[in-house]
Amino acid sequence: MTGLALQPLLPWPLALAVGLLLVGAAVAGLVTRPQRRLQWALRVATAGLVAIGLLGPGVAGGDAQQAGRLVNVWFVADTTSSSVARDYRGDQPRLEGYRDDVAKIARLMPGARFSVITFDSSARTEMPLTTDTTALRTAMQTMRQELTTYSTGSSVSAAREELGRSLEQSRERYPERARVVFYLGDGEQTNGQAPAPMDLAELVDGGAVLGYGTSEGGPMEQRSSSGGDEGDIETDDGQVAISSIDEAQLRAIADQLGVPYVSRNDGGDISPALQQARPSEVVEDALGTSPGRVSLVWVLATLAALLMLLDVTVLARDLARLRGVRS
């Protein structure tokens, strides 16, 4: 239900005392200096707005997901050459889907700690657990696929050891925090070997396997150390190489992690995927909803600034008139 909610910027007694002091001083000036009634009226209004602002008014209503300090989140991203196959939302690289969804998830999980692990021929932690969403955004924007010349085929479970080690450390250091894993990839296994199982369900409290790509597949751009445009990757017989999603493999990984599989190749609203991504009671509690709130302090601050500007304008006008009389 929508209504006014107060969240003082200072402790209640101090906020009230400062507000009353400001308003009282302005009213006193208005009473004792009637010759400058306009200026002091502006100051009374300004002081009133500041006093109200100190009480932190806001409009309450709706629900906002709160991750708070109860959740550690890992984004495990496939950065093999297939991550730039151009079949996400038409003809965009799949990496764009990764970036879009990570940004959406981070916005819906305020206060959570985030980590990024990437994998291709090997796995590495690109960003350790942090609440710094700017660092997360930078990590995703600078994420690139592996160098084509170094590609030795991909394994969908290449990140198993790196992720497992990080989850174990989190369980030991932060046993009170839920451990949420989002695996982002296409499920292609191209190294000629059967993938090792991602059997980490006992360490994972929630999350999802997010799938990108189409069954028709898309071409993959080459990447060299020089950064030049070398066209698309080709097969040994000179044909353009095509990468296709393997949803059966992704579903198997989801089962091994104990989380649902969600196709994300069309992008759009991430909320339905997050609803499926919370099967555990501990994650349900950690991501529980609480009343949302939109602060009105900035509105009051803007109005107060405008009144102060008007006050300065009136003062400047009076000073100009005074100089004119003296001359």
From TrEMBL:
Record-linked Pfam families: VWA_2
Alphabetically ordered keywords of this record: Membrane, Transmembrane, Transmembrane helix
Coiled coil: none
Xref: CDD domains: vWFA
Residue ranges annotated for the VWFA domain, each copy included: 72-257
SUPFAM superfamilies: vWA-like (SSF53300)
Transmembrane segments: 12-31, 40-60, 296-316
Protein name: Ca-activated chloride channel family protein
